[in-house]
Design a protein that fits this description.
mainly beta; Double_zinc_ribbon; 2 domains; Zinc_ribbon_15; two-stranded antiparallel sheet; Zinc-ribbon 15 domain-containing protein; 109 residues
């Protein structure tokens, strides 16, 4: 007798408390402060939901949930860029001016 469990636990944003409250720690795009639910799914169907304990930041670009910036250490200071170097607004890498999209992350320049 075999038993296979196809399911998992995930977080889903329930409501946005403050739109554009910060930046994503992974991709650097805008992140919202949200109330969230933890959701148990079985065969990709939500079976049970319960609310999360404290609000989290949620990035809509990479779907990452992370704690608000008050509980995170401050980011390292950015180096001053040369004025003639084009940088991607998403990943902050130097890009040739002839590109319309970043070759590293695909964001529009």
């Amino acid at each position: 007798m075999f038993f296979f469990f196809v399911g998992g636990l995930e977080q889903q944003a329930r409501r946005v408390l403050k739109s554009g409250a910060g930046r994503c720690v992974a991709c650097g795009s805008r992140a919202d402060l949200v109330d969230y639910d933890k959701v148990l799914k079985v065969f990709f169907v939500p079976v049970w939901r319960w609310p999360g304990k404290a609000p989290l930041m949620h990035c809509g670009n990479c779907n990452l949930f992370f704690p608000p910036s008050a509980s995170l250490p401050p980011p390292p200071p950015r180096m001053k860029a040369e004025p003639h170097v084009l940088r991607c607004g998403s990943c902050d890498r130097a890009v040739d001016p002839e590109f319309s999209f970043c070759p590293f992350c695909g964001a529009a320049l």
